[in-house]
């Protein structure tokens, strides 16, 4: 008795990559949008606090993320734009935009972590408050917002890595709407039936030869 080998249906073989593409697309969109929003929000919050000695007293100072560094917010905007542009390009262009998205996330993480221990913004404010260019801030402390911005960068980085890995499976926004400018051929109408006078009159109204000659 011979054995029958089951041959997998092509439809089921193609279902796996398509499912992976849809899942990765949803995760990348969620991570990219959420990461950019988190990084932008964190950049507007207070990152560090301290005091400056002014006229014998202590003057409270604080610095937001944008005071410390504008890099995370700028890269978050670049990453968000790259996330949208992924669907407008194909092949090599999609790979380059996905790489830009990943680099934006990595840069956001690095800038946020470096800004977590930066004191230059508060030192500048202390110098302005005291009128002494050599003045520095006292009793400086940092908040958790720089690390929140870094978490947003991690999400952007994840979205970029997903685009690099699965971007070839994602749909292109302009694919079904592209037009090359060439006129589409008109469908030929069948000749009017001479046994049906109403069809011949309709053909004449359209400016056609009812005989089809």
Structural features, described:
The chain crosses the membrane at residues 25-43, 70-89, 96-116, 144-164. Residues 177-213 are annotated as: Disordered. Residues 190-213 have a biased composition (Basic and acidic residues). Keywords: Membrane, Transmembrane, Transmembrane helix. InterPro entries: Trp_biosyn_TM_oprn/chp, Trp_synth-assoc_CHP. This protein is mainly alpha-helical and 213 residues long. It has a single domain (17-172), classed as Butyryl-CoA Dehydrogenase, subunit A, domain 3 (Up-down Bundle). The chain is built from seven helices and three strands. The chain has a three-stranded antiparallel beta sheet with strand order 2-1-3. It is elongated and about 110 Å long. The termini are far apart. The model is unreliable at 174-182 (pLDDT under 50).
Write the SSE topology:
Layout: H1 10-43, E1 46-54, E2 57-64, H2 65-68, H3 71-85, H4 91-115, H5 120-130, E3 138-142, H6 145-166, H7 197-205
Antiparallel strand pairs: 1-2, 1-3
Helix pairs in contact: 1-3, 1-6, 3-4, 3-6, 4-6
Biased composition (Basic and acidic residues): 190-213
Keywords: Membrane, Transmembrane, Transmembrane helix
Transmembrane segments: 25-43, 70-89, 96-116, 144-164
């Amino acid at each position: 008795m011979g054995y029958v080998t089951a041959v997998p249906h092509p439809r089921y073989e193609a279902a796996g990559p398509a499912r992976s593409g849809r899942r990765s697309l949803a995760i990348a969109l969620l991570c990219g949008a959420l990461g950019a929003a988190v990084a932008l929000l964190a950049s507007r919050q207070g990152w560090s606090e301290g005091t400056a000695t002014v006229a014998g007293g202590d003057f409270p100072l604080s610095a937001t993320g944008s005071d410390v560094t504008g890099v995370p917010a700028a890269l978050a905007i670049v990453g968000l734009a790259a996330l949208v542009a992924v669907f407008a390009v194909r092949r090599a262009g999609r790979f380059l935009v996905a790489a830009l998205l990943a680099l934006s996330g990595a840069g956001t993480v690095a800038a946020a972590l470096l800004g977590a221990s930066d004191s230059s913004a508060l030192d500048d404010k202390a110098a302005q408050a005291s009128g002494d260019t050599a003045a520095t801030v006292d009793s400086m402390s940092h908040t958790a917002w720089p690390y929140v911005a870094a978490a947003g960068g991690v999400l952007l980085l994840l979205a970029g890595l997903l685009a690099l890995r699965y971007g070839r499976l994602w749909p292109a926004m302009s694919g079904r709407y592209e037009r090359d400018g060439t006129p589409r051929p008109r469908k030929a109408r069948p000749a009017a039936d001479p046994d049906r006078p109403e069809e011949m009159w309709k053909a004449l109204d359209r400016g056609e030869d009812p005989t089809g000659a």
